[in-house]
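Entry 14. Two folds queued back to back today. First construct below, sequence then structure tokens.
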Amino acid sequence: MTSSDEQLLPSTRRALLHRIATAQAEGRSPSLAAAVQRQGQVVWNGSRTCVDGHAPDADTQFRIGSLTKTFTAVLVLRLRDEGLLDLADPLEKHLPGTSAGDVTIHQLLGHSAGLGAESPAPWWERTPGSLRPGLEDVLGEQSRMHPAGRRHHYSNPGYTLLGALVEAARGASWAEVLQNEILEPLGMHRTSPQAQAPHAGGWAVHPWADVMLPEPAEDLGLMAPAGQLWSTTADLLRFAAFLAEGDDRVLAAASVAEMRAPAAAPESGDWDGHYGLGLQVVRRKGRTLVGHTGSLPGFVAALWFSAEDDVAAVVFANVTSGVPVGEVAAELVGIVAEAEPRIPDPWRPLPEVDDELLALTGPWYWGTRTNILRLTPDRGLELQPLNGQGRGARFTARPDGTWIGLDGYYAGETLRVVRNDDGSVNHLDLGSFVFTREPYDPAAAVPGGVDEDGWRGLGS
């Protein structure tokens, strides 16, 4: 139950209902369920159905298809954080004997390993997994479509390999590891590899007539880590909160942030869409959304969240095609974010003053370019060009008294304070760039030196 302060305005709720009602009617889906979360609280649930009095609710399972990949990616990142593997490791090091042993774990996570998009025929989504009993049955004879590391090419078999990697490292089935390491800690008790009542049935709707055909719900076998799961809107919003903030019981915030960062160049022409490590990253109407879409015969699903707005949305439909759930979920996020913008947290001063850090703040010059250095609440620093033109970055403190860049051009670069013999600050060194208190300060160690005649005018 949310408090009255957390409820949406009636006009916002009506706009959300109108959007999903339109999606269900125009997409001709037997049913559609959606939910929105703001600042960690579920603020709206909605559904539409063709059956009077039988609409799905937040506890009704739908199949989520490739949203499953995000769960598999979390399991792999957990192995990395425990020191059991490195993302740069070739697959062969941990899962020997496959025809894809030379590709790296990072490439598999980000779909840049060059593997095929699908397993060999028959269509794996609509046939029993028992038809593909081994990994080579999933990969097929022509498993490589592109050189590894060159481009993004979505691969379902790639996530089968990652699931097998998890099983080899843990000595347990993918489903067991998933249950123990993600679902239980996050309280996702209505997410499962097999359907659990109440759940929606999957349907295909004829493209030219208002008639339906039931779709089979196959056990995908080895392909399960790529698309097996069933879930509810309530459970996926819990998962969205985890993907936004991290949870030390599952994966630390820094590792979740790593998943959200683009891992490979986008598909040609799609500069508004990237893929991280098990997460899609898209731009919609100036807003960055992170999450995943999914589909299996009879079902489509989408989960998006905006970290800036602190809003997440989930949309399910039990139809093979017709409902653009990714676009609908993005629009639900936009409706809430635009109609009821996030109210900033109150400004508060730092709990204590660090005079040494405070003395570093203010203007610094790289040559003649003016930059402002600010102190952040976590003892980090933020460097930004004064006029907005140039390179800026955030930095986090390290135990040795330096700072490491978190983003932008300086990501991973070291910022350090260079002092004179008397302890006073001479300059800042950022990846060999010298920042001084005055433009080309003659008292600082400026590379190449400073002309001894100093600044001059036209008549000099």
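Second construct, same run, same settings:
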Amino acid sequence: MSDSGYQWCGCRDCFDIVVGMVNTLSLCELCEDAGCEIQDGECQREDAYQG
């Protein structure tokens, strides 16, 4: 059994998918580069709230 899998990005307002450890939140690469924090504050990506 693997300890990693697909999950939602740990950024509160991001809906990208990441591969991370089970039961551990991880940020997608774009959120990590933008300086987002896991489950804290708004998404900092430039494209975060565009429709």
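Quick look at the second one. Helices lie at 29-34. The chain has one helix and two strands.
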